[in-house]
Design goal:
alpha+beta, six-stranded antiparallel β-sheet, elongated
């Protein structure tokens, strides 16, 4: 009850059994969870040199196998006389008398105690049997407690990992990172060589998109035939499979087996509404037997279900983003179409009429006046076209960076609207990434548009500052203010928030009926 190590408890039971019965040699075999073989074998009375000379420990054949199959005490005067005996390996010490007692608890056999060569007697006695039974019961309790503890620890780890993946599904939209987490946690729980996730590429192949463990770098990016590989067949059959030896399954991709040096593996389809959208593969358990159990397969299926949800979420987000992009493009096209029709189109019509006036002029003075009016109209139209071009994509942003582009934007805004704009920029000499520059420019542009349309402001301040690890933009006006809508709709706020969210930044809007509006944006920079 005081010893925490199962190995130490079993060794103490073994030594006590040998001492109480007068046995020269003793052994204790623990049956593996399958109930067919021994997972560990402890001995007493055999020296380290003898161990080395004998070689591999018993696996549960012969007399030992008979005790595993029939969990009842067995006494023999001579082991060799029993027809089930298969003899001893070379260098094994001679053994005559034998006593084998099952390690039982509530009818479940956990192993056996083996005693040989009783001192001063030809055979072990019934009293020996009862003593060893008592010790075997203590060993059974120790083994069961150890397995219950291992099981509880294993279930706790599985639950923690599943919860971690579940939390990631709520907060993370990057499919690669989600699948990397699934592969890493499953590999740790299974204790296997590698876990990989493959996604179909059209109808022709399965591409391994994510892998964790030994050989992961070699497998990521490789493809398997959708029709002539194990992974492809799993997608087709939509059911999990596992094999104990790849030599027994011709569907296993030979190239993949060569890369991973695999012996055993399991495959689980990623199912979504009865449709196979990917496949999960785990290869070779480490630390001994490479084969996977039924529990391993069920655990892999639980993680595959979460990997399927990750694919579904990623596809939904991609579709929603595409819809928003298309909708935004259509709104912008509609606005440009209206401006081209209402302003530029009308201006060009006026230019045509002006040309007609030039042609119909009766004298030089009338012609000079008509040409002057026409020149002014062309100049205004050119300004409008340039303004539309800048709104589409300011050339200064690409050529010179954010600050020069904002200088042109604010000066043009002030000149056109008569609203004073003060720009203060402290970004240093190093340019930001194109994504950040574009997002901040568009946010300032949208904010200035709102000032004209809604604020009735007289002054606007724009401050752009770079700090360690981030860049911030502050836009303030002295207009009449507004109550920010609870749903975030209207006034271009949705577009601003989406731009900031794509950069993992944050946006805050403060305004009210008392007047004035402040828009604060902060985005991380590398």
């Amino acid at each position: 009850s005081s010893e925490l190590s199962l190995e130490a408890v079993l060794q103490r039971v073994l030594e006590t059994a040998a001492e109480l019965t007068g046995a020269a040699y003793a052994a204790l075999g623990v049956i593996d969870p399958s109930g067919k073989a021994l997972e560990r074998f402890l001995t007493h009375g055999i020296s380290a040199e003898a161990h080395a000379a004998i070689g591999e420990l018993p696996r549960g054949r012969g007399i030992l196998g008979a005790l595993i199959a029939d969990a009842t005490p067995l006494r023999l005067e001579r082991i060799a006389d029993d027809p089930r005996s298969v003899g001893f390996p070379p260098n094994h010490p001679p053994m005559g008398s034998f006593l084998g007692v099952p390690i039982l608890l509530r009818g479940v056999a956990y192993g056996n105690l083996y005693l040989t060569e009783k001192a001063g007697a030809e055979q072990f006695t019934e009293e020996d049997v009862e003593l060893v039974r008592l010790l075997a019961a203590q060993a059974a309790v120790a083994i069961e407690n150890a397995r219950l503890y291992e099981s509880a620890t294993r279930w706790s780890s599985q639950l923690e990992s599943l919860n971690e993946v579940g939390d990631a599904l709520v907060s993370e939209i990057d499919l690669q990172r989600l699948h990397a987490l699934v592969a890493r946690r499953l590999r740790e729980l299974l204790g296997c060589k590698v876990v990989a996730i493959g996604l179909p590429v059209g109808d022709r192949a399965v591409r391994w998109a994510t892998a964790d463990g030994e050989g992961a770098e070699q497998i990521v990016g490789t493809e398997a035939s959708a029709t002539d590989s194990k992974s492809g067949r799993i997608l087709e059959r939509k059911r999990s499979e596992r094999i104990d030896s790849i030599l027994d399954d011709p569907e296993v991709n030979v190239e993949m087996a060569r890369i991973l040096q695999m012996n055993a593996a399991l495959w689980v389809p990623l199912l979504l509404r009865e449709k196979a959208i990917g496949v999960l593969m785990a290869v070779d358990k480490l630390g001994g037997d490479p084969r996977f159990s039924d529990d391993d397969l069920r655990l892999a299926e639980a993680f595959a279900a979460r990997a399927s949800v990750a694919v579904d979420l990623s596809q939904r987000v991609a579709r929603d983003s595409l819809r928003r992009v298309v909708a935004g493009q259509e709104l912008e096209r509609q606005r440009l179409a209206r401006e081209l029709h209402d302003e530029t189109g009308q201006a060009l019509t006026s230019i045509l009429l002006g040309l007609h006036s030039v042609e119909e002029a009766k004298d030089a003075e009338a012609r000079k006046l008509a040409v002057a009016e026409l020149r002014e109209l062309v100049t205004d139209t050119l300004h409008d076209v340039r303004r539309l071009a800048v709104e589409l994509r300011p050339k200064a942003l690409d050529d010179f960076g954010l600050v020069p582009a904002l200088e042109r934007l604010t000066s043009g805004f002030a000149e056109t609207t008569g609203i004073a704009v003060e720009l203060e920029a402290g970004l240093g000499d190093e340019r930001l990434t194109p994504e950040i520059e574009t997002a901040l420019y568009r946010i300032v542009q949208e904010a200035l548009t709102n000032v004209v349309k809604h604020a009735r402001a007289r002054r606007v301040s724009v401050v752009v500052t770079r700090r360690p690890g981030s860049v911030s933009t502050l836009i303030e006006d002295d207009g009449r203010g507004f109550e920010p809508p609870e749903d975030g709709q209207g006034l271009g706020v949705v577009g601003m928030r989406e731009r900031v969210a794509l950069l993992d930044g944050r946006l805050q809007i403060e305004s009210g009926a008392q007047g004035g509006t402040t828009i604060a944006v902060e985005v991380p920079v590398g």
